[in-house]
Design brief:
single chain, Rossmann fold, 3 domains, 19 helices, tRNAsynth_Ia_anticodon-bd, tRNA binding, arginine-tRNA ligase activity, DALRD3, DALR_anticod-bd
Length: 544
């Protein structure tokens, strides 16, 4: 029948009521899930039906709803809160606890378009700072999310080989290095020639009063007014063009041309601007770089008035405020500080174990997790405040990357323990899914894990990868905090369940059915952890 999904089930429920507006909602709170799984609230019913009275035939049709991605529904009844529906839970467990499918991907070799993610922070001649890291980490995460949806991604700029990028390697940021055989010089010459023909550009002779390296002046404001462009800073007037700017544009052009022919197709309207006939360009910038990037955006539109330059969008990150100390700190210093704090916190929690050489990789991974969650679990438009005091990082906080990694490691330990017991003859091996009895899963936390995390997970990844077109202007908003928040909430609910329920019980045959069903559920939870962490370039830990 296929894997059930939230969206398909809601569509079927809304369809049976025969109303165009969405009426039904999915429940998520533990208290409400004791009584219902989906609700058509009384206020929505009053707006959709005279007196809020739903035709009896519509109510009676709900339990018979079928579809490849529709959950099996058990009962629909009128309650003071509205129409309430419960799922046939054992059947839902059976359908969801097979091998975890990934997101719906196109056929092998095909892609659903191409996106160029441009991160100007990596062109900064100065040392990287935490504010630069935020936009780089966001672009890196977004690239992983898009690739998981079958979208081709090009990352720009290539890293300058003359600089050290050790902090990017330490943070497991997968960014392409520079290549020797680039065609950039020819592209820069072509852009210079285009400047010479541009009516809103004037050549600059080097002399007194002329900034070094400036070759042209371009009147941006008149271009914005002529084209009727909106969303640009009103203070954009004259741009002093340098060869460095032209090299930046040439590299962007090269990235667009490198998109395979199969990628140069219309992207889904739900994800990118509907007029796209080639790859979309997204400039991922911190708020301090936004003005300069708008200048380059307009210069590119002037020199290369193609479909791709018209599709430039800006994803702007809010400021990163550093306190304690408030002095300027580099990205490498920030990483080393967090690593030292994570090491000290681990020594406090685990004692001598944390000082063993085998823990070096664990501490590195926990540090990367702490920084990535610190930077990515907040909406990208909002300010982040980094408190760098010694006690500002912990292995215990429920909203930290370390907490997520700790719970992932608990699952690894669970299965290692089970496998060891199987090898010792204490338990039989886990039977095939078709032989498991999921009616044994009656604990409240088990349904919570399935219904709130395993069921919606593919849709969570899809939503996190969406880059919806702006209502107007050039700024776009992405849900780049979605995966981190999902993992934090999953970790909290899993931890609560794991602390309350003894999964590996006494080795009595009459208890095996429940233990095996729980192990299958825990295996699916582990798969979700691993898949979500992969979008953050975080390997699962086998021990903490």
């Amino acid at each position: 029948e296929g894997r059930p999904g939230v969206a398909a089930t809601l569509r079927a429920l809304n369809g049976v009521l025969g109303r165009p507006a969405a009426v039904w909602v999915k429940e998520s709170g533990a208290r409400n899930l004791r009584h219902r799984d989906f609700l058509a609230p009384r206020a929505a019913l009053n707006a959709a039906f005279p007196g809020g009275q739903v035709p009896p035939e519509a109510v009676s049709a709900v339990p018979s709803l079928r579809g490849p991605a529709v959950l099996p529904l058990r009962v629909c009844r009128q309650t003071p809160a509205g129409l309430a529906v419960q799922v046939r839970r054992p059947e839902a467990f059976q359908r969801l606890l097979g091998p975890l499918p990934g997101p719906d991907l196109p056929a092998a070799g095909a892609r659903t378009g191409c996106v160029v993610l441009h991160c100007p922070a990596l062109r900064s001649p100065a040392a990287l700072r935490p504010r630069h890291l935020r936009s780089v980490l966001l672009a890196d995460h977004l690239a992983q999310l898009l690739r998981a949806q079958g979208v081709g991604v090009r990352l720009v700029p290539a890293l300058n080989e003359e600089r050290s990028w050790e902090v990017l390697r330490q943070l497991r940021i997968d960014w392409p290095p520079g290549s020797g055989g680039s065609s950039l010089p020819d592209a820069v010459s072509a852009l210079k020639a285009a400047l010479g023909r541009c009516p809103c550009a004037a050549a600059c002779e080097q002399g007194p009063g002329t900034a070094e390296g400036v070759i042209y002046k371009v009147h941006l404001k008149s271009f914005v007014e002529q084209q009727g462009l909106v969303g640009y800073d009103p203070n954009l007037h004259v741009l002093l063009v340098t060869e460095g700017m032209l090299r930046s544009l040439a590299e962007l052009q090269e990235a667009v041309l490198q998109c395979p022919v199969s990628d140069l197709m219309a992207l889904p309207a739900s994800r990118f601007p509907s007029q796209s006939s080639c790859c979309s360009i997204v400039h991922v910038v911190n708020c301090e770089e936004e003005f300069q990037q708008q200048q380059l955006d307009l210069l590119w539109r002037i020199l290369d008035p193609g479909a791709h330059t018209a599709l430039q969008k800006h994803l702007v990150c809010g400021p990163v405020k550093v306190t304690n100390p408030s002095s300027t700190i580099g990205a490498d210093q920030y990483f080393q500080l967090r690593k030292r704090q994570m090491y000290e916190a681990s020594v406090i929690k685990y004692g001598e174990l944390a000082q063993d050489e085998a823990w070096i990789e664990v501490i590195d991974t926990l540090t990367v997790a702490a920084i990535r969650f610190e930077m990515l679990s907040t909406a990208h438009r909002s300010q982040i405040t980094l408190d760098l005091e010694n006690n500002s990082i912990s292995t215990k906080g429920t909203k930290s990357g370390a907490f997520v990694m700790y719970n992932c490691a608990r699952l690894a330990t669970l299965f290692d323990t089970f496998q060891g017991a199987v090898e010792q003859g204490i338990y039989p091996p886990l039977p095939p899914v078709s032989e498991l009895n999921f009616s044994c899963l009656r604990e409240e936390g088990e349904w919570l894990l399935l219904f709130n995390y395993l069921l919606p997970f593919p849709e969570v990844l899809q939503q996190a990868a969406q880059l919806p077109p702006p209502s107007k202007g050039i700024r776009i908003t992405a849900n780049t905090e979605t995966v981190c928040k999902f993992l934090i909430q999953l970790s909290m609910d899993f931890s609560s369940y794991y602390n309350r329920v003894h999964i590996l019980g006494e080795p009595y045959p009459h208890l095996f059915d429940q233990m095996f069903a729980r192990l299958q559920l825990m295996g699916a939870v582990k798969d979700v952890f691993h898949s979500a962490l992969a979008t953050l370039h975080l390997p699962p830990l086998s021990q903490i």
